[in-house]
Amino acid sequence: MKYLDEYRDAEGARRVAQAISKIATRPWTLMEICGGQTHAILRFGIDELLPDSIELVHGPGCPVCVTPVELIDKALTLASDSGLIFCTFGDMLRVPGSRGDLRQVKAEGGDVRIVYSPLDAVRLATEHPDRQVIFFGVGFETTAPAVAMAVVQAKRHGLTNFTVLICHVLVPPAIETLLSSPDNRVQGFLAAGHVCTVMGYTEYEPIAKRYGVPIVVTGFEPLDILQGVYLCVKQLEEGRAEVENAYRRAVQREGNQPARELLLEVFEVVPRKWRGVGAIPRSGLGLREAYASFDAEKRFGLEAAGVEESSECISGEVLRGIKKPHECPAFGVRCTPDHPLGAPMVSSEGACAAYFRYRAESG
After folding, report:
1. DSSP conformation letters of 179-241
2. Domain locations in the chain as residue ranges
3. What is the pLDDT of residue 186?
4. pTM to 2 decimals?
């Protein structure tokens, strides 16, 4: 907990942790969906503040981590083409495919560029009309509106040299998949506040009711996370299973309506494979027919190929909350940020990276 005292409201966090201890009468297992929350939990030692009866496990809320190997390989194929400009967020550079990563492609001469917004890629397409520009669209509902806006702008400007390689995924179907699994042990969820800022939380309400699990929309500060844990445990102790909003300063029940309308205009819901989890029906976004010309897979004729993931990597079990990163025999030995076996070790939201950074000395 060496970082907790640096937190502006450390005493408040301790008080909430004490309140959790008072109301918890039996063991409960909760899952934080978001990888950003995982990093906050480990950095500030939030899990160490909680009573032993409360266990936090880590979910599939790291978009980089769940991008399938097949799609990474497609990105490598495109980025290796000397005539293309391949744009991506920095997190994707070191995610391993079956034959290397984007950092290696860049080192070998591929024109791979880190951008901070999909609109940067649209600008590059405008500045380089003689070259194809591809943006790697990865993320949950949080980043999808920006990609949708980029596609709309590209169409508005008549750009024929801009496409998107898409791997956007949706949180609610993933939660349902976890809950319907025979090895599920999660009894309550902390929902990602930034996703709910865009989408609201109406989609979670039937899930809470159907599976009898509380879902609490939670922020990212230590006090936010602890408050989410408190509300979740309180519901479990009282025998309730509802959706509660503990992030009201940012989240409304219906979400951001203009952003949702933009998503509906540009994307349609499609099946999507999740790395380490498998195929989940209706868990992804794909471009609608009106915008199909901006689909990089279609324009460049990329075909899916079956790719085997590392048999030594247990990232799938980590992403499903079955195991913790330090339970992997390769953790910190054969799998490190410099030589990762799986994406959770290199992503800034990956659980393995969080354990390596904040708990390696005790792993």
Report:
1. HHSTT----EEEEEHHHHHHH-STTHHHHHHHHT--EEEE-SSHHHHHHHHHHHHHHHHHT--
2. 4-61+177-245, 69-170+255-299, 315-362
3. 97
4. 0.93
